[in-house]
Amino acid sequence: GWISLSNGRFKDNKTGLIWGPIQDGKFNHRDAKAKFGNALPTKEEFKEAEKNGIRQVFNMEDRWFWSASVNPYNENSAYYFSGYNGVVYYDYRDYGNGSVVCVERSK
Q: With 80 as the cut, is the pLDDT of residue 107 above it?
């Protein structure tokens, strides 16, 4: 399950990760990495969050979210999470219409 915290943040009890809030604005991958750094979730964290029901917690269906993960076969593309269907895809890092949801990892 998920626990609602303050300021649009939610804790995934299965992983211990704290997600959110969804950031204002749209970003290309390079700008998202520069602005949010290690707070961007990895593609693996998005896949696990999908199994745990993240799309039922956040209103995500009309957008997609950059991950921190760059495609190992093409450094000009990076992975993103579809809020519509919960699948991880990749696209060009310069495509500037991506959203960002940050994640906090336990120290």
A: no
Q: Cα(14)–Cα(106) distance, rounded to whole angstroms?
A: 13
Q: How far apart are CA 17 and CA 85, in angstroms?
A: 21
Mean pLDDT of 28-32: 97
Question: What 3-state DSSP class applies to 43?
Answer: helix
Rounded Cα distance between 90 and 19, Å, is 21
What is the chain's alpha carbon radius of gyration, rounded to the nearest angstrom? 13
Residues 88-96 have a mean pLDDT of 96
Beta-strand ranges (E) seen in 18-63 are: 18-22
Contact 19, 12 (CB under 8 A): yes
